[in-house]
Amino acid sequence: MNTKVIKENKYIKEQFEALYNSCSQSMNEQDLNLVKKAFDRAQEMHSGVRRKSGEPFIIHPLAVAKIVHDEIGLGAEAVACALLHDVVEDTPSTIKDIKQEFGERIGVVIDGLTKISEVFGQKNSLQAENFRKILMTLSEDVRVIIIKLADRLHNMRTLTSMPPNKQIKISGETIYFYAPIAHRLGLYRLKNELEDLSLKYRHPTKYQEIEDKLNETEEKRNKEIHEFLDPIKRKLDENNITYELVAKPKPIYSIWNMMQQENLTFDELSNILNIRIVIHPTPFKAEKAQCWDIYSLLTDLYVPKPERIRDWISAPKSNGYEALHVTVMGPRGRWMEVQIRTKRMDDFAKKGFAARWKYKDEKERNNALDVWLSKIKEHLDNPKPDTMEFLDEFRLNLFASEIFVFTPKGDAKRLPAGSTALDFAYEIHSEVGNKAIGAKVNHQLVPLSHALQNGDQVEILTSDNQKIQREWLNYVTTAKAKASITNAIKAETKNRTYKGKKELEKTLDRFGLKPNSNLIRKFLEAYEVSSKEELYSKIGSGIISLEGIDKIIKKHSRNKFIRYWGLQISRTANKTIPRNKKTAYTQKSEEDFDYKSPYIISENADDDQLPYQIAECCHPIPGDEVVGYKKPNSNQIIVHKAKCPTAIKLMSSQGQYIVPARWTTHTYLSFLAKLGIKGIDRIGIAKDITALISNELNANIRKLHIDTIDGMFEGYIELYVHNVNDLNNLILNLSKIKGIDSVKRVEEV
After folding, report:
1. Could you tell me the pTM of the whole model?
2. Is the pLDDT assigned to residue 330 strictly greater than 50?
3. How many CA atoms lie within 13 A of 415 on its CB side?
4. Which residues does residue 341 pair with via DSSP β-bridges, in sequence order?
5. What is the mean pLDDT of residues 667-677?
6. Contact at 8 Å (CB) between 346 and 340?
7. How far apart are CA 271 and CA 299, in angstroms?
8. How do residues 714-733 score in pLDDT, each as one tens digit?
9. CA distances to 136, 253, 354 from 122, in Å
């Protein structure tokens, strides 16, 4: 046996002993024997197998088991499952073998953790089907998803050894699916690390910038923390309270997300600290009352911000989270948020539903989990044919914040924050939603789009004559409402489309014609519709009349000027784009510019010379971080912003088609961008804005819209720019105009 093998065996033994010793602090001899038995079996089956990093494969299940026990707090069965979780997938062992050796319960969990190997239809990704299987097992044992999260966390911790395209795929899956699941199960510490690691690989430059900023400002931040906490410590000590004070920066992903949402720099963020007061409550007094006592002591020292009090003790979140959040004015004139919890609440916040095993027996575990699992089961009992559509709807149930609203009889309904009266109608029953015409909120008549607030009492008004409208999809937030509306629209559209198709065929038959691609193309242009399905649907609903169709048949299609935006993959920046290699993406314009093409470099040599299309969902422009999506069975690549939600979803579901890409050179190609603008109204401000854009910055305005109300104005500008630098310079110069308060880039164009 060579020296390397001896060292590896010694390391494996040390890792198992560390796990065993940790387990021995909370397990009896029978449980420890189960852990030892599972390790022996896993080590035997994975013998000689190595990970991408080169280390023995058994190190991975050992690490997952340690996360499951030490960081999440699950027991012997879960640790055994973590040790065995890859045995069925990667070795000749079967689920039947596991059940015979370790019992039915462990077999069920291992089955849920085993990846699917069958071939699925083109519309479904293998990874998405794997997600569905995990979710289907949830209703049997929630430990399936908890162990899967631990498995993903260790994979993210060791992602450096993977090639770049795998890093993008795995980090995309993580932020799209696993981090929201961890949040929904109350595993906040695990969720934060998953988000941070995902950001590290998806946006490495941004991650490093924020990490460097945190290091640079550490000394200044520590002084501010001491100034704020020292009076609190004295107050708590005076009242003989046993406590722990925690103050540290928010996770890097959370800081990055605030910067993105509020369009601020790191230095402009008002509060990047997480401050917690964790008390050890005294017996014979309710925890809730003791938390409010701490609130009283805190507000004796600092002035609170009333609208920023969050009471999740009286009404815990559906993932079990309990705490009292209060925002107070600190000694340096900065608002500081403080979380007040008991030790039990803090354990729940760190370990989520897993903490129930520590504090309550099986029958007493929080029924919020059962409520959530029953909602999952509703989706699984009526699965979508398109797995990604199913996952999109499922993710809508992973909402971050919630409100309670009440029926006229006083029954409480839990909904995502931002839900509307129409969401509430569908929460009661799909038929109530389908027939809804309005609502009364707190006895006041409101439209279905009315956003509900915590504590509202809602009555839904219905009519048998009501028809579902496509616009309703813009009014709702919950998965249940979206699914009900979508299904009803699909059924109605299918009926209209069939009716319209038959009507068109009947009309053409009078002229002795059959529908063909040439005729359909003429009709699409004449009736200004984008697809034949839309054409059929509008004919079937009576929006399009077929009178005068003979003139369209005889009329030649008029040529319209189209400006092409060429994009190409190339390994070198000196390649030129042949005239005959224009892409499918077009932008109609009244002006005729002579544009040259930018370049995008791909790390995949096989993608050279493939045509590119700019994604219409996010409209990237040169300077934006981008990724390419190589469409299956197609010689075309769609270019998305790296942070685009559609791109993130594609990374998670079809990572094998993601192409790393970046802008290299460009000259005069213009890209459409949109700016939101606000300020104080004055005579001539619109003239100053247009003069700056057109004359000084030589940009072409496509559209300018401004509304003025009570001396204030708000609007947007659509214009063509060459790259992100030009756009940022434009924003800077516009901000200098007298009266303008803010100028921000709007992603949707």
Report:
1. 0.61
2. yes
3. 32
4. 278
5. 74
6. no
7. 19
8. 888 888 877 777 788 888 88
9. 22, 34, 37
User: 582 pLDDT band (50/70/90 cuts)?
Assistant: very low
* Beta strands, E only, 599-657: 600-602, 612-614, 626-630, 637-641
- The DSSP result for 248-263, as a single string, is EEPPHHHHHHHHHHHT
* Mean pLDDT computed over 198-216: 93
Which of 639, 631, 577 minimizes the C-alpha distance to 608?
Answer: 577
Query: Alpha-carbon distance 441 to 301, whole Å?
Result: 38
Pairing outcome for strands 273-279 and 335-342: parallel
**The two three-digit tokens of residue 189, written as one number:** 């510490």
Q: To the nearest whole percent, how much of the chain has pLDDT over 70?
A: 80
| Reduced DSSP (H G I as helix, E B as strand, rest coil) percent helix, strand, coil of the chain, to 5 | 50, 15, 35
118 included as an active-site residue: no
Residues with Cβ within 8 Å of 405's Cβ and at least 6 positions away in sequence, in order, are 412, 413, 415, 419, 424, 452, 454, 455, 456, 457, 458
For residues 326 and 129, give the distance between their C-alpha atoms in angstroms, rounded to a whole number: 42
What integer is the mean pLDDT of 214-233? 92
Catalytic residue among 14, 40, 89, 244: 89
Coil vs helix vs strand at 591: coil
Torsion angle of alpha carbons 283, 286, 292, 298, nearest 10°?
A: 10
List of domains in the chain: 3-209 (1.10.3210.10), 210-359 (3.30.460.10), 487-554 (no CATH), 563-663 (no CATH), 671-746 (3.30.70.260)
Of the candidates 133, 124, 19, which has an alpha carbon nearest to the alpha carbon of residue 76? 19
Range with the poorest average pLDDT among 175-184, 628-637, 640-649: 628-637
Coil, strand or helix at 51:
coil
SS3 708: strand
Q: Model confidence over 148-184: pLDDT tens digits?
A: 899 999 999 999 988 888 888 889 888 888 888 888 7
Low-confidence winner among 214-218, 271-275, 589-593 (lowest mean pLDDT):
589-593
575 vs 447, which has greater pLDDT?
447
Looking at the predicted structure, is the pLDDT value of residue 478 above 60? Answer: yes
Q: Exposed, middle or buried: residue 355 (CB in 10 Å: 0-12, 13-18, 19+)?
A: buried
| Four-CA torsion 693, 697, 700, 701, nearest 10 degrees | -10
Which amino acid, 583? T
Classify the C-alpha dihedral 540-544-548-551 as positive or negative.
negative
Q: Dihedral of CA 594/600/606/612: which sign?
A: negative
Are 277 and 245 spatial neighbours (Cβ–Cβ below 8 Å)? yes
Quick one: tokens of 154?
A: 């260790």
3-state secondary structure of 452: coil
Q: Name, of 262-266, 277-281, 343-347, 520-524, the range with top average pLDDT.
A: 277-281
Q: HEC profile for 122-164? A: CCCCHHHHHHHHHHHHHCCCCHHHHHHHHHHHHHHHCHHHCCH
Q: State the catalytic residue, choosing from 8, 55, 71, 90.
A: 90
Tokens (6 digits) for 306: 């009333």
At 187, list the tokens. 């595993």
The pLDDT score that the predictor gives to residue 231 is: 94
Per the annotation, the verdict on 90 as an active-site residue is yes
User: What number of helices (H) and strands (E) belong to the chain?
Assistant: 29, 21
Dist CA 637 CA 612 (whole Å): 5
Q: Among the listed ranges 121-130, 201-210, 277-286, which one has the minimum average pLDDT value? A: 121-130
Both tokens of 12, joined, read 């494996």
Cα angle for residues 379, 383, 385 (degrees, 5° grid): 145
> Which one-letter DSSP state was computed for residue 188?
H
Single-letter amino acid, residue 668:
Y
Three-state DSSP state, 303: coil
pLDDT tops 50 at residue 509? yes
Q: Give yes or no for a contact between 233 and 245, defined as CB atoms under 8 angstroms apart.
A: yes
Contact in structure between 561 and 592 (CB atoms under 8 Å): yes
